[in-house]
C-alpha cells in the first residue's frame, strides 16, 4: 500500500494538475431543488457538449418541491479552462438574449412527493453561443440574477482538432494491472500559426471533473501531430464496475434492497450493507460508470410521475473499525461526484458501520465508494481499499483540448474526444 501511494505521487508529477483545486461550477444553492440533469437530447448518459458546427442542443431539467409554480429564468456564462469567469461581454460570445424564461413545466402526478418538473434546451431560437469554451448555465428566480437556484457546467467545441485516443495498460509493473493510461494524438493542421505553449489538454474519467488530469506540453511533436503518451501523464485508477441500485419500483425489492419503510410520507429504502470489494475477484458486467437514469417500471411518464425516496446506504468496514485519518465518500453523479459533506459517510460507533441517507428520485443508479486521506489526498488510491483496481474495468474518458489563440481573452475548446477502455480488448 505504501509503495503504491509513493508510486502514484511520482506518476502525477509536476506536469499533471488536479482539477480539485479549481472552481466547481456544479452547485445547488436553494433547498427543495432536486435531480438537476444536463445532457444531449435523448442521450442521458452523455457528457453535455455543444458543437459550434451543428449546435445540437442539450436538455436541462430539474424538480422543485415547492407546490406552486415558480418564475424561473436561465442565462449562460463563458468561463476559462480553470472555470474562472472569462473577461468578455455576453455580446462577445452569445447571439440573442441572455435572460431566458423557462416556460416548459409539468406538475407531478401519482407521486406522493409533490413537485414541479421544469425543463428547457440550449441553444434555442432565443439564445446560442458564438464562441467555444467552458460554459455555465445559471438558473435563477424572478428575473433576478442574484437569486441563483443552481449552476451546471457544459462545453462548447469548435471541432478544429481531431483526437485519436486509446486506453493502454501502464508500462510500470507496480500499477500495470490496476490502472489505465490514456494516450492520444492531436492533429492541429487546421489551426494557423499554432502555438503549443498556449494549449492544455484535460482528461476526465467517468464525469469525475474534480479528479481530471491536465497537461500542457505534448510528449512529442511530429509536424502537425501532437502525441501524448508519456508514462507519467494521464494515469487513472481503473476501479471496478460500479455498484448498482435499482429504484425503478418502490414496491418490489430488487437485489440490493433489504427493506422498505412506508410509515412516513416518503418511502424509506434500506439497502443491504456494502463491504469492501478490494480482495474479491473481478468480473465484468454492464454498468453506468457512476451515472444514473431516471425511469420506473410502473408508469409511463418518468419526468413527473416518478416518486422520491430516502435511501439509506450502509458500508461495513473491516472488523467494524473506522478508517483512521481518512474519510469515506459515496461517489457518483447522484452526489455530483463532489467529495464534500453531502457525499461523506458518517461512522456510527455503536453499530460499527458507516451510513449516509440520500433523497433520490426513482431510477437506476450506479456508484462507488472512495476513501481519501484527510491530509495529502491522492486520487490514484481512491478505490484501493473499498473497490479494488483492475485494469480490465470498463471506463469512459473525455478529452478536452483548450487553446488560447494569439490576442484572445479566453480559453477556447478546439477539440473534444472520447474513448472507452473496452475498445482496446
**Number of continuous helical runs:** 3
* Strand coverage percent: 35-45%
State Rg: 22 Å
Our measurement of the CA-to-CA distance between the termini, rounded to an integer number of angstroms, reads 28 Å
Shape: globular
Overall structural domain count? 3
> pLDDT below 50 for ≥5 consecutive residues: which ranges?
1-21
Structural class: mainly beta
Tell how many strands the DSSP assignment holds: 31
Helix content: under 10%
Strand count, sense and closure of the main sheet? 6 strands, mixed
Mean pLDDT across every amino acid position: 92
Would you kindly provide a written description of the structure presented here, covering whatever features stand out?
The chain is mainly beta and about 425 residues long. The protein has 3 domains: about 130 residues, Immunoglobulin-like; about 100 residues; about 140 residues, no CATH class. The protein contains 3 helices and 31 strands. A hairpin with a 7-residue loop joins strand 16 and strand 17. The two termini are about 30 Å apart. The relative contact order is 0.18. The N terminus is likely disordered.
Write the layout of secondary structure elements.
Elements: H1 2-12, E1 17-18, E2 27-28, E3 33-40, E4 49-51, E5 58-64, E6 72-79, H2 90-93, E7 94-96, E8 100-101, E9 104-107, E10 116-122, E11 127-129, E12 133-141, E13 148-157, E14 162-168, E15 179-187, E16 199-205, E17 213-215, E18 220-222, E19 225-228, E20 235-237, E21 243-246, E22 257-261, E23 267-271, E24 292-294, H3 302-305, E25 308-315, E26 326-331, E27 346-348, E28 353-361, E29 363-373, E30 396-403, E31 412-420
Parallel strand pairs: 4-13, 23-25
Antiparallel strand pairs: 1-17, 2-13, 3-5, 5-10, 6-8, 6-12, 7-11, 9-10, 12-13, 14-15, 15-19, 15-20, 16-17, 16-30, 18-19, 21-29, 22-23, 24-29, 25-28, 26-29, 27-28, 30-31
Amino acid at each position: 500500500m505504501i509503495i503504491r501511494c509513493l508510486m502514484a505521487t511520482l506518476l502525477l508529477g509536476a506536469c499533471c494538475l488536479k482539477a480539485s483545486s479549481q472552481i466547481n461550477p456544479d452547485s445547488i444553492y436553494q433547498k427543495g431543488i432536486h435531480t438537476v440533469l444536463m445532457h444531449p437530447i435523448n442521450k442521458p448518459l452523455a457528457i453535455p457538449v455543444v458543437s459550434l458546427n451543428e449546435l445540437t442542443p442539450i436538455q436541462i431539467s430539474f424538480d422543485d418541491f415547492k407546490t406552486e409554480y415558480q418564475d424561473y429564468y436561465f442565462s449562460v456564462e463563458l468561463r476559462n479552462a480553470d472555470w474562472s469567469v472569462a473577461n468578455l461581454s455576453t455580446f462577445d460570445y452569445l447571439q440573442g438574449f441572455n435572460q431566458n424564461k423557462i416556460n416548459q413545466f409539468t406538475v407531478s402526478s401519482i407521486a406522493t412527493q409533490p413537485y414541479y418538473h421544469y425543463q428547457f434546451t440550449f441553444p434555442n431560437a432565443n439564445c446560442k453561443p458564438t464562441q467555444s469554451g467552458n460554459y455555465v448555465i445559471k438558473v435563477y428566480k424572478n428575473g433576478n440574477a442574484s437569486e441563483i437556484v443552481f449552476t451546471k457546467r457544459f462545453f462548447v467545441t469548435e471541432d478544429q482538432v481531431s483526437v485519436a485516443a486509446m486506453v493502454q495498460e501502464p508500462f510500470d509493473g507496480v500499477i500495470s494491472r490496476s490502472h489505465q493510461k490514456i494516450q492520444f494524438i492531436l492533429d492541429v493542421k487546421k489551426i494557423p500559426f499554432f502555438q503549443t505553449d498556449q494549449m492544455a489538454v484535460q482528461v476526465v474519467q467517468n464525469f469525475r471533473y474534480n479528479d481530471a488530469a491536465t497537461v500542457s506540453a505534448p510528449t512529442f511533436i511530429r509536424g502537425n501531430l501532437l502525441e501524448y503518451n508519456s508514462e507519467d501523464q494521464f494515469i487513472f485508477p481503473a476501479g471496478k464496475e460500479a455498484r448498482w441500485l435499482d429504484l425503478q419500483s418502490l414496491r418490489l425489492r430488487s437485489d440490493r434492497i433489504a427493506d422498505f419503510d412506508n410509515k412516513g410520507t416518503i418511502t424509506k429504502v434500506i439497502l443491504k450493507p456494502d463491504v469492501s470489494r478490494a480482495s474479491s475477484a473481478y468480473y465484468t458486467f454492464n454498468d453506468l460508470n457512476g451515472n444514473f437514469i431516471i425511469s420506473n417500471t410502473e408508469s409511463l411518464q418518468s419526468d413527473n410521475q416518478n416518486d422520491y425516496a430516502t435511501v439509506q446506504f450502509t458500508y461495513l468496514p473491516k472488523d467494524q473499525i473506522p478508517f483512521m485519518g481518512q474519510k469515506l465518500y459515496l461517489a457518483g453523479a447522484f452526489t455530483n461526484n463532489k467529495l464534500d459533506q453531502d457525499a461523506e459517510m458518517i461512522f456510527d460507533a455503536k453499530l460499527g458501520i458507516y451510513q449516509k441517507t440520500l433523497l433520490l428520485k426513482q431510477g437506476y443508479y450506479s456508484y462507488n465508494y472512495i476513501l481519501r486521506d484527510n491530509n495529502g489526498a491522492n486520487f490514484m488510491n481512491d478505490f484501493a481499499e473499498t473497490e479494488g483496481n483492475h485494469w480490465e474495468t470498463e471506463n469512459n474518458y473525455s478529452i478536452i483540448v483548450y487553446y488560447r489563440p494569439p490576442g484572445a481573452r479566453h480559453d477556447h475548446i478546439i477539440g473534444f474526444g472520447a474513448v472507452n477502455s473496452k475498445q482496446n480488448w
